[in-house]
Amino acid sequence: MLPPYHPEGFTDFSDPNNRKEFEEALEYVRSQLGQKYPLVIGGEEHWPGETFDSINPARPAEVVGTFAKGTAELADKAVEVAYEAYQKWQYTPAFERARYLLKAASEMRRRKHEFSAWMVFETGKSWLEADGDTAEAIDFMEYYARQIMRMDKAHEQLYDFYPTEQLDLQYIALGVGIVIPPWNFPCAIMTGMTTASIVSGNGVVLKPSSASPAIAYKLAELFWEQHIPAGVLNFLPGPGSSVGDRLVDHRLTRYIAFTGSKEVGLRIFERAAKVHPGQIWLKRTVLEMGGKDAILVDETSDLAQAAQDIVSSAFGYQGQKCSAGSRAIIVRDVYDEVSERVADLTKKLSTGETDKGPDVYMGPVIDKKAFDSIMEYIRIGREEHTLLAGGNAIETDTNGYFIEPTVFGDVPGDAKIAQEEIFGPVLAMIPAKDFEDGLNIVNSTEYGLTGAIFSKDRARLERARREFHVGNLYFNRKCTGSIVGVHPFGGFNMSGTDSKAGGPDYLLLFTQAKSIADRM
Ligand code: NAP
């Protein structure tokens, strides 16, 4: 009997012992930087020739790891090997599959700070953000292990009232799943999609983000070290633009689990719809994409709390969360006060190399491409709106990709920086005539991922419950920080297929139901 699921706690870095342990983990990972990593297909290592480096965005000259680059031929091989492995893995009892996740979760818990430290180096996460990311990865494994056990027993509760037939409903695996995660929750989202696939009985090809392959390799190692049958989990790093299409198009690919940008998500959606010669199923797609998330504040709300939560929603992990609150929509009567508070709090945020300590709030953005794109939005913001805080790149000796947390005021709801996902530390303060107008602005983008409303007016909260059109809605709190098993996560419209990761229905997306009647 397993104890009930409980989300993993976060580390208290005000405790000197925890700080010391985290510093030791950073030291250990520092000693591991610069190693070479192969592709792994069917348990065999491959070195096809070309490689690419994963770098530390705070110090781009620092190589976190060098990775073998997947080729089209190896992408084909990975799918074929995963298909072969799935033939047996699908019949492995659900409890047995779940035990691989439970063991990996306990191992990750034991080495929690080490996993977090990899993210500090590879993705510029602060200690707190990295700690939350690892905790979420552990939660996904603990939660999905229990969910597959629940689904495995589901048939026992069905159809007692129909005595002439013995009835059964089984949730069976789909086949080969291509798992394509982003770099921004490099441990949590990657672990969630990969282990949901494995525990449901599928064969997996994990194509990590090129910006965060090291942490993905570390997760895969947890399963290989347990001797999961060869070919169940294959590791195929390489640019999405080359191996990605090949994996998606393969006739043996049964589904694609993707989290990332709208552009790539739509490309996968279209390509997966094409039926290739020899393909005998319709490919399934689980696509979680971008956001332009809003926090709406009315005149009845606790303005100090609202300002605080606007700032943490906008700038946690440098604004590089799909759930980041990049629009603050404030009712006119309190707009000036909230804007002033938000600008003041923003100016106090510290930015720097996150391995230096837990008090560094913001690190670098992920790479040069992101840096250039964000700075272009800031240039547009400076031209069209009122700069209230930040607005500059931060120069360092290390040439890291640092940008000040930036706030623009008096931004119309239909402005470019209020409509497009910037995915960086840029917040648009948008005045609304009143609550009604604010709600219209909330729903005026093509996205619908997360959102929050601050109000003490119950009727308005109830109206928002119905009309604030997002997959994850929060009242009187920030719009980031969902917890597995507590806030099932996924968005509407161009934010994706609303898969509700970390929720009770998620594994249905990785399985198909088979109904069996046996006449008595
Ligand atoms: P991205 O550029 O779309 O990349 C995501 C993944 O897709 C990476 O592994 C990437 O590989 C791969 N890829 C690129 N081109 C591909 C292709 N043609 N075929 C198959 N795969 C391909 O997104 P990102 O920059 O990593 O992540 C940021 C985005 O993710 C934001 O838009 C954010 O809102 C979104 N996001 C959404 C959620 C959610 O739950 N809705 C959660 C987190 C993030 P390479 O790295 O090799 O290019």
Overview of this protein structure:
With 520 residues, this protein is an alpha/beta fold. The chain folds into two domains: 16-289 and 498-519, Aldehyde Dehydrogenase, Chain A, domain 1, CATH 3.40.605; 293-483, Aldehyde Dehydrogenase, Chain A, domain 2 (3-Layer(aba) Sandwich). Helices cover 39% and strands 21% of the residues. The protein contains 15 helices and 23 strands. Helix 3 packs antiparallel against helix 5 (127-153) and helix 4 (112-123) packs across helix 5. The two termini are 32 Å apart. The model has no long low-confidence stretch (mean pLDDT 97). NADP nicotinamide-adenine-dinucleotide phosphate (NAP) binds at residues 180-185, 189, 209-211, 239-241, 244-245, 248, 259-261, 264, 267-268, 288-291, 322, 421, 423, 449, 491, 495-496.
